[in-house]
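Whiteboard transcription, Tuesday session. T.W. wrote the structure tokens on the left side:
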């Protein structure tokens, strides 16, 4: 073999400790290598990211191209049609937002379809579990609830929320929940969303070759579309899921791969929409299936979640969570997973090969997501258990015929998760007068410096969990309360930071608040669509008073330090458009120093929105976020109190007494 070929054939192998700080995932990558099984971690090392694509400096929106510009000299060249770097990057960014927003809104629409069929009595396997939530959501958009039946309210709510998707004009229903001053900014800037379908269609249209070629005008529609996700599709997904499956409240949960059990039939649900998982919970409790598992020699059936599917039921039912996005291939290497059922989003095609190597059944269930080489057992809301029962049967048969050598990492961690907006309200204000006043008061008096949302994915191009954990440690040490969703919270749960005992890692002010209330300094809220809970919490902070008139005034910041998906870009954009300073890590698909970059990273704030930020190292990210929080505190006149808190305990008591 000639030397060149040999170099190509030889794969670079990076020490597992450089790929992830998750011990269980390390153990499984190492086992995989011994077994000759490759994961995304190894593929990432062996495939350099395309530098032109990473900068978003290329365009393939027509067939006079693809055109490649030079990120080092962004204004030195234009595309064949004359498109500038700003047009090209803005169009690319727009399409990421369209795709990410479409994923969330389609998920939300599936929940709404289910809700309609439940309300109309066509589906009997699900019911309205949380009537109180139904009423409060209805009231929040002006639906009369007094003296009306649950069904009447539910029908009205369905009809109103359908407009989140289908409205061709006007404003989406949940615009009514936006703080008035924030909504005023949106109206002034022309970004209040109509229905999501219209906004996504508009964005796809204007980013076609030869349409919108003004990056500021493209950005306007980018924001409008993103807001149709945050305050539309995602919010509907969260609220309807709460209504049907229950609103989360804190529950102690187990996380990590050690939740698998060697002597039981192990089933993993991975993906996003909670209906599949809810039905699977029923199936694994089915006496005949438990008997079948026992007859096959198992002690029982063990169910665990991964990614956002896992996060949905982690916060609602305390079902164990086996790991985040970057651990989904790794967990199959245990040999202990008898079936992994998936629905939509974040499902790596690489799972097929790993599953085949260990004889695991990889089962797709959603008509939108079939994967070559995976088994498909379609899930129907009208007869949900048919599919989930069948998946259990497949898992039992694999257990019975297990040939793969089983090695389960022993790591199990516990955390307390499930801090919905409703629970935060109750936790702080008590059951009779639920309120955000204590939170605002503690921000005003400086015990809590500000609030940060640390959310999003894990990514094969960055050491898994490391940035999440180091960033959050730094934030809480500086008295910043952290809210989490999605895969991010699993990183912190594995690090033991989502327990009330973790308060000792917080700064003195935050520690005191956590100890008084008995809460962790890091609050897990749910899945990625549950970022809408953070929007609601922020709106409630504005409404409660003392921290400014709009979301943009609040001493808050957001971050997705290890993001990988287009959904994350869409989430980032709707936080920015809602008024939040939002920092992303890993990489950012816009060339620094260009006009489009300046628009999103600087000018946007002066228009009344938030703005984007970028840094890779967790301490750099923390510095940016804390500096922003302090800037907002200063603008609110709260910097003085804060200084005294830091200087001296006695001063602080004096503030309390005052
Ligand atoms: Ni969010 Fe959920 Fe995880 Fe990222 Fe994927 S599971 S919707 S996109 S990887 S946090
Ligand atoms: Fe090139 Fe313009 Fe076509 Fe894009 S739209 S591929 S920049 S010619």
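and on the right, the sequence the group agreed on:
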């Amino acid at each position: 073999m000639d030397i060149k070929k040999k170099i190509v054939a030889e794969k670079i192998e990076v020490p597992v400790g450089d790929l992830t700080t998750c011990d269980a995932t390390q153990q499984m990558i190492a086992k995989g290598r011994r077994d000759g099984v490759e994961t995304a971690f190894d593929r990432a090392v062996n495939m350099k990211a395309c530098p032109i694509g990473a900068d978003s400096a290329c365009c393939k929106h027509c067939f006079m191209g693809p055109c490649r510009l030079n990120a080092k000299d962004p204004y030195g060249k234009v595309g064949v049609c004359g498109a500038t770097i700003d047009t090209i990057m803005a169009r690319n960014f727009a399409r990421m937002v369209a795709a990410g927003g479409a994923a969330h809104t389609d998920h939300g629409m599936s929940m709404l379809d289910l809700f309609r069929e439940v309300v109309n009595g066509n589906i009997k396997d699900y019911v309205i579990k949380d009537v109180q939530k139904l009423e409060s959501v209805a009231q929040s958009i002006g639906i009369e609830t007094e003296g009306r039946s649950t069904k009447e309210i539910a029908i009205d709510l369905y009809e109103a929320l359908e407009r989140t998707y289908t409205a061709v004009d006007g404003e989406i229903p949940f615009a009514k929940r936006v703080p008035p001053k924030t909504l005023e900014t949106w109206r002034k800037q022309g970004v209040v969303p109509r229905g999501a379908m219209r906004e996504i269609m508009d964005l796809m249209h204007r980013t076609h070759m030869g349409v919108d070629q003004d990056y500021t005008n493209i950005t306007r529609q980018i924001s409008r579309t993103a807001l149709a996700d945050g305050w539309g599709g995602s919010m509907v997904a969260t609220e309807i899921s709460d209504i049907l499956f229950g609103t989360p409240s804190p529950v102690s949960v187990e996380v990590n791969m050690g939740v698998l059990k060697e002597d039981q039939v192990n089933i993993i649900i991975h993906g996003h929409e909670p209906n599949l998982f809810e039905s699977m919970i029923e199936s694994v409790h089915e006496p005949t299936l438990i008997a079948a598992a026992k007859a096959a020699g198992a002690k029982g059936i063990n169910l665990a979640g991964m990614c956002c599917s896992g996060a949905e039921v982690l916060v609602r039912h305390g079902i164990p969570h086996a790991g985040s996005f970057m651990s989904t291939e790794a967990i199959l290497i245990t040999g202990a997973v008898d079936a992994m059922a998936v629905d939509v989003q974040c499902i790596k095609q690489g799972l097929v090969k790993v599953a085949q190597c260990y004889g695991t059944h990889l089962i797709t269930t959603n008509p939108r997501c079939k994967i070559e080489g995976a088994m498909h057992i379609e899930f129907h809301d009208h007869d949900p258990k048919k599919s989930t029962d069948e998946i259990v049967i497949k898992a039992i048969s694999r257990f019975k015929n297990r040939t793969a050598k089983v090695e389960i990492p022993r790591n199990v961690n516990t955390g307390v998760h499930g801090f919905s907006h409703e629970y935060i309200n109750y936790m702080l204000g008590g059951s009779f007068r639920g309120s955000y006043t204590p939170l605002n008061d503690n921000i005003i008096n400086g015990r809590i410096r500000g609030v940060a949302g640390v959310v999003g994915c894990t990514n094969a191009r960055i050491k898994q969990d490391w940035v999440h954990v180091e960033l959050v440690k730094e934030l809480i040490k500086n008295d910043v309360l952290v809210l989490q969703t999605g895969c991010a919270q699993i990183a912190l749960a594995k690090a033991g930071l989502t327990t009330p005992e973790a308060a000792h890692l917080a700064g003195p002010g935050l520690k005191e608040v956590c100890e008084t209330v008995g809460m962790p300094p890091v609050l897990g809220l749910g899945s990625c669509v549950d970022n809408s809970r953070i929007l609601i919490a922020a709106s409630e902070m504005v409404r409660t008073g003392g921290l400014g008139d709009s979301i943009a005034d609040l001493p808050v910041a957001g971050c997705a330090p290890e993001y990988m998906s287009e959904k994350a870009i869409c989430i980032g954009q709707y936080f920015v458009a809602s008024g939040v300073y939002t920092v992303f890590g890993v990489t950012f698909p816009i060339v620094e120093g260009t006009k489009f970059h300046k628009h999103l990273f600087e000018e946007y704030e002066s228009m009344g929105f938030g703005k984007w930020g970028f840094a890779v190292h967790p301490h750099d990210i923390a510095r940016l976020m804390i500096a922003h929080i302090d800037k907002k505190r200063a603008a609110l006149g709260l910097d003085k109190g804060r200084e005294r808190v830091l200087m001296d305990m006695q001063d602080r008591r004096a503030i309390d007494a005052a």
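Someone added at the bottom: The mean pLDDT is 94.
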